[in-house]
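User: Predict the structure for this protein chain, please.
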Amino acid sequence: MGIAVGLVEVLGHPPALAVADTMVKAAKVTFVGYEKVSGARFTIIVRGSVGDVKRSVEAGVEEAKKIEVLSSKDKALFLSATIIPRPHANLEAITKTMRFSEAVEQFR
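Assistant: Here is the predicted structure, written as C-alpha cells:
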C-alpha cells in the first residue's frame, strides 16, 4: 500500500513555512519539501498514512486561512489543497519533490 501525499498551496514564503510547521505538528506525517510554483506561490508537500495526511492538510488549510485573516483582506494566501491517497509509482518517479530523500528517510 502506498503512502498518501498531501499538498497545500499558499501565497508567500512566510505563510508556507507557518503552514508546513502546522501540518507536521498536526499529525504523524513527514514533510518532504515545498516547491516554488511561480512568483510567490508555494506548495507544501507531506507524506504519511491517509488519515494522518488528511488531518495534516486540514490543519494546514485552517492555518493558511487564519494567516489570511491577519493579513491584507484583498489577497487570499490560501490557494488550494489536495490529498492523493495512493499515488501511482509513475507519478512519484517523475515528480522529484514527492520522493523521500535520503535525509528524510530517517524519519519514516
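The chain has four helices and four strands.
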